[in-house]
Amino acid sequence: MTNFTLTKTRFQEGVWEGLLSSEGSATGVPKLRVTHLDRVVDEVEVIPNEGEWIVRVHVPATAIADGVHTILVTDASSDTVLNSLTLISGNQLEEDIRAEVDLLRSELDMLKRAFRRHCLETM
Fold this sequence. Notes:
By secondary structure, the protein is of the alpha+beta class. It has a domain at 4-89: Rab geranylgeranyltransferase alpha-subunit, insert domain (Immunoglobulin-like). The protein has 1 helix and 8 strands. The strands form 2 sheets. A 4-stranded antiparallel beta sheet has the order 1-2-6-5, with no helix packed on it. The chain has a 4-stranded antiparallel beta sheet with strand order 4-3-7-8, with no helix packed on it. A hairpin with a 4-residue loop joins β7 (67-75) and β8 (80-89).
């Protein structure tokens, strides 16, 4: 039995890349299944690289849209999820916790400036 580990290395220019390694005796090219919205993503490359494999997934244009879109990379033989890519865009970001933290930071900066101004005026 072979256990695969897929580690993301980069995401650039619409191509997600990862390094696939095996903890067992893997022979040949591993069979991966990449899906978005339960549809198979066709543009996937698995390139041998010194006992490991470089996996390149070309993100489909349908994943670049408003909302939350997830692309799953699974081991086709065991149906185990090896890694995933999530793209978030559009109005959902307004409610995202990161947007809230950014707003809180801005308000804190405003309060710090007002407090410092108040301290200078009362001296």
